[in-house]
């Protein structure tokens, strides 16, 4: 849910409205980049759900 809000904010800054089909892959991409950058601030449960 938090990632979805961040994606909507990014699109709002760019002046675009994210279609529902783009939200899910975008969330996966952002989560991968964030995992690499932060190095594991996520709780183990959320990380497991992302890997599935």
TrEMBL record:
Residue ranges, annotated region (Disordered): 30-52
Protein's recorded name: Uncharacterized protein
The organism's place on the tree of life at top rank: Eukaryota
Biased composition range(s): Polar residues: 42-52
Organism of this sequence: Cirrhinus mrigala
């Amino acid at each position: 849910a938090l990632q979805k809000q961040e994606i909507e904010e990014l699109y709002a800054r760019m002046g675009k409205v994210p279609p529902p089909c783009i939200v899910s892959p975008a969330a996966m991409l952002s989560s991968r980049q964030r995992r690499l950058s932060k190095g594991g601030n996520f709780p183990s449960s959320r990380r497991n759900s992302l890997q599935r």
